[in-house]
Amino acid sequence: MKYYFLFALGLILNYNRLVCQTQDSTLLQNKADSTVAKSEQILPIDTATTNESQDLNYQNPKKYTIAAINVVCSEYTDKNVVKLLSGLEVGNDIKIPGEEVAKAIKALLDEKLFEDIKISLEKTIGSDAFLRIEVTEKPRLSKYTFSKNVKKGDIEDIRTKLGLKSGKVLTDFALSHIERIVKLHFINQGFANTKVILTQTPDKSQKTPHNILNIEVINQRKVRIANINIFGNKSISAFKIRRVLTESKKFRWYTFWNNGKYLQENLEKDLSNIIYIYNNRGFRDAKILKDTVYFVSDNRVNIDITIDEGNIYYFGDIKWIGNTKYRSGQLDTLLNIKKGSVFNQELLKQKLEMNPNGIDISSLYMDDGYLFFQIMPQETNVVNDTINLNIQMYEGKQAYINKVIVAGNTKTNDKVIYREIRTRPGQLFRRADVIRTQRELSQLGFFNPEKIGIVPKPNPADGTVDITYSLEEKPSDQIELSGGWGGNMFVGTLGLTFTNFSIQRFFNKSAWCPVPSGDGQRISIRAQASGPSYQSFNFSFNEPWLGGKKPNLLTISTFHSRFYTTPNISQYINNSSGQEVINPQFGGMFITGASIGLGKRLKKPDDFFTLYTDVSYNYYELYNYSLNLLKSGFANDINFKINISRNSVDAPIFPKSGSNFTFLMQLTPPYSLVNGKDYTKILEADKNRFIEYQKYKITAEWFFPLTNKKAAEGQEARNLVLRTKVGLGILGYYNKRVGTSPFERYYMGGGGMSGMQNFVSREVIALRGYTDNSISSGVGDPICTRYIMELRYPISLNPQATLFALGFVEAGNTWSNYDKFNPFNVKRSAGLGLRVFLPMFGMLGLDYGWGFDNIPGNLSSGNGAGQLHFTLGATLGEM
Fold first, then answer.
1. Is 748 exposed, middle or buried (CB count within 10 Å of its CB: 0-12, 13-18, 19+)?
2. Reduced to 3 states, what is the DSSP secondary structure of residue 749?
3. Residue 434 backbone phi and psi in degrees, to 5
4. DSSP character string of 767-824
5. Could you tell me the mean pLDDT of each successive run of 10 residues in the chain, 879 residues long?
């Protein structure tokens, strides 16, 4: 007798309920995309191949052994995988009818890979059952396209995020994933109303089922925040609360720096900032009761935030537990939190672990080798509004440095890095040394300061620690090919600067790629010209570690400059006797100079101090060139410089914190005091045959971070930085009869882009918003002051192209004599600027400033007139 059987998907959900149908064949079928199983017929079993002829009894299922499983599928699907997924195996015993087949169908359904699944009984021989599994795969991806309203840049970003490849099975999960990624991409741009519609079209060019997927994006205008309403606040004003919402800001057309974009994830981050400021004011129970976002128009939303402030709490008794090295009284003094003061969780954390404004408990221990030190504040009890604390401490033992490892340097030699590292094997571990090392490596300029990694690997068993410094090289050599307007002329510059040169490998042919490098030396070759009127040639060499054992700086430089006031007139002519003589109509000045300097780091008052001294010689030739009262003749300038500075800024290109103080004294020998000449009867040319002067400059510069955003993974931390600077310069004399030297005077005004300081032996000081040299007199002045305040914001901190914008206010002036000197009588200006640092070209700057004060005799400068300034170099025109 023939056997037939049939199971429905209902059997999967409820095994006690069987939907069956007995006909000339037996079929178990399930559609993969349906939640209800269908009953369909299959071909009759060949009676000639069976050995039994009784009807199928659903009340008494019969036990069979699987003799074979025949899988029917496309070429993309592995038959063995289908068998494995079904859970059916040859040799297994199953009951027919029974739940094993239903479980197999469910298992294949769960893979979401098949549109149609059939399991049928082909035949039985005795107690052996021969099964057939037929699966129809879901279509695969042929290619995918976007609707025409999607921009090319968005398409490229989305393709990167999706990572789709031809042949991917278009399961329900895959389609929902595609829809979610595309939608999220536009939501993150502020299109909160974005809709994504996926349409599949069969690709007839493929032999097997493949679909072309079209991604249609429907988005309206960007959704922006109209208003943020604060409810429940009593102790903190709504204005202050809105200020801490750093990412969710009200949109106003005049706040161009804030786009007012609404993003749910930004709002969630900002809500935690509200709790943060409440906690810092003693409201430790403060919470957000609810936040509601609702549309007030098609592209505007309001945000309502309801706050429960709770009660204010105060510090109670603070007890130290586990301290043996320092007495509790010493720790109380350092903690400096009085009983009864408002409870501030963040202040407590800073005082215990990381105080940006001074020493904390952890640094007290960590700077004395206690690397394994742990500190855990615990609330013992809360009495009314007073919180008592026990501060549990585990001091551990002092750790010594075992190994110091440097990784990632591909160009810079290890010795250049190791000599800047303050953590040495065998020394006691100090956290301050680690932080200082990070700063010194950044100051080298060879590595990306944002990617300097420090990984300590402590070994508590033997009380040692290994420290690994991971580095990422960045281009630092510069090719300068530029031009700018300054000194009422166009100045072109061509230069090469190798900042990581190696003079020791100069004769090693294999080291030239393109130049020998890696030893941290600096070589600069530079030429400037302004047509036939001006040429200048400079060379300098810098060795920061003379001898290789101590940071003793050696600098050697030389230059030659020429300026022609009559470029079309020859310097020499033949006299009546045919001899070559100076042309009396020729005008110009030539300077040749050289200097050698030595510098060293000081240890007192601290090791941020440096001392630099140098000796310079400049030789001047003047031909009908008016330099104060000196017009023609020769002059010699032999001077000695002493420069004492303290530099603690954290980075050379875009400093965020630290300060820079400089005192410069530049002296010539006091010839007039020892040569016995009567300078009331001497000619001007003879008076300046040997130039004498004494020059002093004092500058002080500070950097303050105004925001403290933390860098997200793979992103930059962009924080607003305030830069302030003051400077004073004085050019004095030894002998009143000699007077002020015509050389080394101050010329103020413009962007400081004259580029000819060496040539005319003058110091050009920038004052943006005014024309070049318009503040000082035509022959320069001996006294100068300048005050600067800048707000800087980084657009990109990428070492390949550092870019930051700035707004500035500054003031300055020069005085022709000491009786008129008044440091508060200054010319004021304000403006905006942009700085771009390219490793191959150095710092490029563009400023537009408005001068507010009147300049007598100069109608084009001051009085609110705007001036555009182009600058080259980070410190050009600075004082």
1. buried
2. coil
3. -65, -45
4. BTTS-TT-SS-TT-BSEEEEEEEEEEEEEE--TTSEEEEEEEEEEEEEESSGGG--TT
5. 33 32 33 33 32 48 87 79 87 83 84 80 87 84 88 88 85 87 86 87 82 86 88 92 85 69 83 90 92 88 93 94 93 92 90 78 91 91 91 92 94 93 94 91 88 90 93 82 61 84 88 87 89 88 90 94 87 83 88 95 91 95 79 90 94 90 96 86 81 96 85 67 96 91 90 55 88 87 96 87 93 93 95 87 86 82 84 68
DSSP-assigned letter for residue 101: H
CA distance 816 to 733: 13
Helix (H, G, I), strand (E, B) or coil at 80: helix
DSSP 566-589: STTS-SEEE-TTS-EEE-TT--EE
pTM value surpassing 0.85: no
User: Does an H or E element contain 103, and which?
Assistant: helix 99-110
Please give the sequence-ordered ranges of beta strands (E in DSSP) within 78-126, or none if there are none. 93-96, 114-125
CB 193 within 8 A of CB 212: no
Pair of tokens at residue 401: 């440095």
Please tell me the chain's helix, strand, coil percentages from 3-state DSSP, rounded to the nearest 5: 15, 40, 45
Residue 784, token pair as written in the block: 């100068």
Look at residues 744, 755, 738, 592 and name the one whose alpha carbon lies nearest to residue 665.
744
Backbone φ, ψ for residue 824 (5° rounding): -100, -5
Q: Where does residue 201 rank: exposed (0-12), middle (13-18), buried (19+ CB within 10 A)? A: exposed
**AA identity, residue 417:** I
CA–CA dist 134, 119 (Å, integer): 6
Strand arrangement, sheet containing 6-7 = 6-7, 27-31, 114-125, 128-137, 62-72, 93-96
Q: Which of 98, 107, 104, 112 is nearest to 32 (CA)?
A: 112
Helix ranges (DSSP H) in 534-576: none
